[in-house]
């Protein structure tokens, strides 16, 4: 076949195809969706407009507008924090923060911070709050008043993060870790307290036994006193007691008189 016989493409047709393709591309990029638990921050020429797209379908101007997706679900941030107690003990804390971005503040947060708010806001606020609260307690109080320390740290985080549109859902102290010397001193103190409690219980037991013995002796003394008083008033009680104890057998003796107890009868 002669090269002249090959049909040449129509330039007008090519232009039409390109235009149609570009139009279709623009149409498809003009629409998008925001998933549940997310918000779309509307930007125009990379500048935040302040408009926030809720979950669902949205429409934008292609090549001009863009939608940045922000997560507004509850998220967990875990961290290790090092601080000093009021008695200058080094404390290693493992903490966990549950938070979420307020949907109505997503545009402002994206505008001022971007998506790296964990690194730029939450981490510094968490470290600073843990250090500030820990410094108000001794190392021992951090253990005995753990719930109070947790609430104080959470209050500090509320104040620092709320201004950025981040809500603190919960804060927990997973663990406190102290130096080996402090752990040894706590163990020794607990052991000493246990030994002191054992000694106190033993002393109470001895005291109780002594009180019982005194009460028993007092009771015997009172009984003897009452009996002596009764004998003094009525000597015949002794003869009655002897009769009660006599087995009815006359004593075997030779010579002399046979003693017997006489009881006066009315």
Distinctive features:
alpha+beta, three-stranded antiparallel sheet, 7 helices
**What is the distance, rounded to the nearest whole angstrom, between the alpha carbons of the first and last residues?**
171 Å
Query: Biggest sheet: strands, sense, closure?
Result: 3 strands, antiparallel
Strand order across the biggest sheet? 3-2-5
Number of distinct beta strands: 8
Order of helices and strands: HEEEEEEEHHHHEHH
Percentage of residues in strands:
15-25%
Structural class: alpha+beta
Helical segment tally? Answer: 7
Q: Low-confidence parts, pLDDT < 50 over ≥5 residues? A: none
Quaternary assembly = single chain
What helical percentage do the residues reach?
Answer: 40-55%
Average pLDDT for all residues: 81
Overall radius of gyration = 48 Å
Give a verbal description of the structure.
By secondary structure, the protein is α+β, with helices and mostly antiparallel strands. 49% of the residues lie in helices and 24% in strands. The chain contains 7 helices and 8 strands. A 3-stranded antiparallel beta sheet has the order 3-2-5, covered by helices on one side. The longest helix is centred in the last third of the chain and has 54 residues, at 180-233. It is rod-shaped and about 160 Å long. The model has no long low-confidence stretch (mean pLDDT 81).
